[in-house]
Amino acid sequence: MRTIVITGGTDGMGAALARHYLRGGDRVAVIGRSRTKFEALIATVSGEDPSAAARAEFIAADLSLVGDARRVVDRLSAGYERIDALALAASFIRQRRHATAEGHEASWALFFLSKYLFVTGLAPLLRAAERPVIVNTAVPGARPDAIDFADPEMTSGFTFKRSNAQQRRANELLGILATGDNPGLSYVTWGPARLVRSGFAGEVGTGMRVTAAVLGTLLGQPSESAVRPIIHLIDAPEPGRAAYRGAAKLALPAGDHDEKDALRLAAAVEAGLSSNG
C-alpha cells in the first residue's frame, strides 16, 4: 500500500486524485480547508469500497499560513514512515497583494513557501520510499529572471503577472534543491494542457471569474480527465527533474545560474521565514 499526500485535496484536480488513489487501495492524506468537502469525497468513494474511509486522513489547514504548513509537516512526519507521492495542488487565486496575519504575501506563501516547507520538511519520508515522486502543479516555463531575490514577497511593484511568474520560477528551482538532496526523487512541475472544469477558488474581479466560468464550461475538461497524466507520473516515476503540460513532456528551462539561484532562493526563504517567526 502506497502513501499519497495531496494538498488541495478536497477540490478540483486534488479531489480527483484523492478519489483515484483511494479507489486503488492506497492510503491517502488529504490536506484542505473543508472537512465537509472531505466527508463528501469519502462518502462517494466508500459507496464503492467501504475500506476507503479507513485509508484516508484529513488534515485541515490554510496553506497560505506558514504555521499551518509547518503543523501539517510535523503531523505527517509523526504519523507516517514514508511518503511515496506528494501532489502539491492547493490553489487560491488573488489578483492583488494580500498580507496574511503572519506578515507574508498570501500568494507567495500558498504557491511557494508552503511547498518549500513540504518538500524540505518531508524529505526524510520521501527518501524512505522506493520510488518517490513530487508532482508540483506549477505551470513550467517561467523566465530565469522572474524572481526578485531582494524582495520575494513583493512589498513594492506587485502585479498578478509578476507574482505568477515568480512563483513558477521558484518552484522550478525548488526541484533543483529537492533532487540534489535526493537523486532518486522524481520532481515534476506540471500544468494542464487546457482549461479544467472545476470550482474557481480565489479573490478576483468579476471579469476574471465570469471568463473562467464561461470558458471552463465551454472548453474545460473534467478534473478526472485532467489528472490522468499526473496519475501516470505518480505510477511510473523517473528519477530527476521534469516538466509537463498535460501528457506532453517539455524541455526544462535551463540557465547559466540555475544552481546558484536555487541556493540563493533557499537562503532568501530561510531568512524570510526566520524574520517572520
TrEMBL record:
It comes from the Bacteria. Keywords: Oxidoreductase. Pfam families: adh_short. Transmembrane segments: none annotated. The keyword Zinc does not apply. This is SDR family NAD(P)-dependent oxidoreductase. It comes from Nocardiopsis sediminis.
